[in-house]
Amino acid sequence: MSDTAESWRGKRQEIAEEQDTTVALRPASRKLLVELVRPYKWMGLGLVVAVVAEAAASLAIPYLVQQVLDFGMPELADGDGSSLTRLLLLMGVAVVVQTVGRVAFIRGSGVVGNNILLSLRRRLYEQFQRLSIGFHDRYTSGRAVSRMTSDIEAVQELVMQGLDVVVASGLTIVGATVLLLYLDWRLALVAFLTYPLIFWLLHWFTRASTRGFRAVRTKSATTIVQFIETMTGIKAVQAFRREQRSRSQFRQVAGEYRDANIDVMRVFARAMPGIQYIGHIGTVVVVLVGGLMVLRGDLMVGVMAAFVLYLRMFFDPMQDIGQFVSSLQSALTALEKISSVMEERPEVADPERPVPLPVARGELRFDHVRFGYIDETVVLPDLTLHIPAGQTVALVGTTGAGKTTIAKLVARFYDPQEGAVTLDGVDLRDLDAPTLRGHVTLLTQENFIFAGTIAENIAFGRPDASREEIEAAAAAVGADVFIGEMPDGFDTDTGKRGSRLSAGQRQLVAFARVVLADPAVLILDEATSSLDIPSERLVQNALNTILADRTAIIIAHRLSTVAIADRVLVLQHGRVVEDGAPSELIGGEGRYADLHRAWLASLA
Prior knowledge:
This protein has helices at residues 5-19, 27-37, 41-77, 82-130, 133-138, 141-183, 185-192, 195-232, 234-239, 243-295, 301-343, 403-410, 433-439, 454-458, 467-476, 480-484, 503-517, 533-546, 559-562, 582-586, 591-603; strands spanning 364-372, 378-387, 392-397, 418-423, 426-427, 440-444, 521-525, 551-555, 567-572, 575-580. With 604 residues, it is α/β, with parallel strands linked by helices. The strands form two sheets. A six-stranded mixed β-sheet has the order 6-7-8-3-9-10, with helices on both faces. A four-stranded antiparallel β-sheet has the order 2-1-4-5, with helices on one face. Helix 2 (27-37) packs across helix 11 (301-343) and helix 8 (195-232) packs antiparallel against helix 10 (243-295). GO terms for molecular function: ABC-type oligopeptide transporter activity; ATP binding; ATP hydrolysis activity. One of its GO terms (cellular component) is plasma membrane.
């Protein structure tokens, strides 16, 4: 829920992350950028050539205009049109080169830029998949979505516009300045009087827009977090009638996002017209001074015309550079955030030399295992446990006793700080992920049902399974009965997160997945706690099938599920305080007997 301390802590973490960024790229960010660009270095060189050719052709046109006015036209008046023809042909060539260069750059940069972005999206997506559960537990979904959307879009501006602005605008400004001095140094000095104002305004604009864009990114991230958080918990929002409160919070963060964007637009509204205004003033002054020089015969008309054209070529790119410098801050900030994710290393990493385990019997051992989550007390202080292959073990105990932690260690979502967890005598840390996932499967009370058909969801663990194998797996757990009643049978669309299926039906689909995947070790974490009695009976029947001939760890508060276990472990503060068959513990005076009597009383 959006009101919880955890959610707001995540938002504060997101905001702090957004505000701690700077323009300077860290070595990791530079390395990432180089790796992305390196495959396209030759195409990039071709783009630079296209931009340089376009800029050179653009700079040549005012000079050719000057030559036409000062030499071509007078010679034509004297009856010689050869110079004018030659100059007009050169102008035509310059226009063609400029056009071809622009077309080549737009098409080439589009291909290169989008390929780079595709590579970045793939790498980031694969990195998110590669990182351990511990990372995803602390990294909010809003931050992950922000990395994949707004941050990628910010980098897109850098990739798609950077080369054009830096090379083309830079060449144009430098070239125009040099040619102004070449045409007439006296008039150039007059034009240069506006340069300090332009550079001061650009400096102010860069600083102000940097602060503004940083605020925009902060508010954007907060808005994304608020939206995703509310939509993820929409059932709870509606169940507890928190729509008005959620709307109020979203209005607030969305309003702050709007205000931040308005502030940036105000900066643009001052800077961009300011640059234009200074450019117009400079042009007017140059025209006045140059006009007087023309009247006195100190300046040719063609030089005057070319001078004004070059002056405009100097001022126009200034606006592009100003906007690019501002978006550059946003892009570099985004690149820093993306590279920080790419720098993350899985807390549970594959071994350099994995031990092969093609066939697993399912024997599990905890050898003096000590484990605690980050910033929390130790959950398992010193656990030693042996589960023979093929045995079904139920874990019971109060909340926080360590039941789910044991399940996560067996599934290797985490590694112990001390000791070892072994499968058939092999430390789980010596098995690569495909081998481990092929032998160990974890099912929870909310098994994720993906958008698609029922058949596709059953085959999730074995995509290469035939239709006959899928149907056989469903029949093994009794799921074929309800599937046969569906309008399209196995081809029925499950809806978003299995919304078209009941809780019991979703669990049966998950059990069919297990039968099809056929792991040696199965972990059931509260597999029936959210089911009603009829659904629980269906699932209980399916359990007898899926638990056969495999090692199983069952975590359950409902003792009806525990009853099918061969062995019960009662946990307290991460230690095993009772260990025995359910029938033996029920007849005793221990903790499990108390739990069983309380459960019977609840059924009366």
